[in-house]
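Student: I would love a firmer grasp of how sequence relates to backbone shape in proteins. Thank you; the sequence and its tokens follow:
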Amino acid sequence: MVRASHILVENEQLAKKIKGEIQSGADFAKMAKKYSICPSKAQGGDLGDFGKGQMVKEFEDAAFSLPIGIVSNPVKTEFGYHLIMVTKK
């Protein structure tokens, strides 16, 4: 099981821009509320706890390989481009 937050956007350029802002000190949850097109943005992108087989493969592979607190590079899925941050394993 992992707990992760994400920011979902429609294109890779925007995902990279947001990641740069976060790396420069912007708060992940605030960026999720501002930019994400997923309903989870209301919770700052928090998706809660999930196990293997509950998310699309690309998202799951990234989430389970990330160290806690590190923001992923953009991950492309059928929904768009995700920035993923694992908050608990």
Observations:
- The first strand starts at residue 2 and ends at 9.
- The chain has three helices and four strands.
- Residues 2-88 form a domain with the Chitinase A; domain 3 fold (CATH 3.10.50.40).
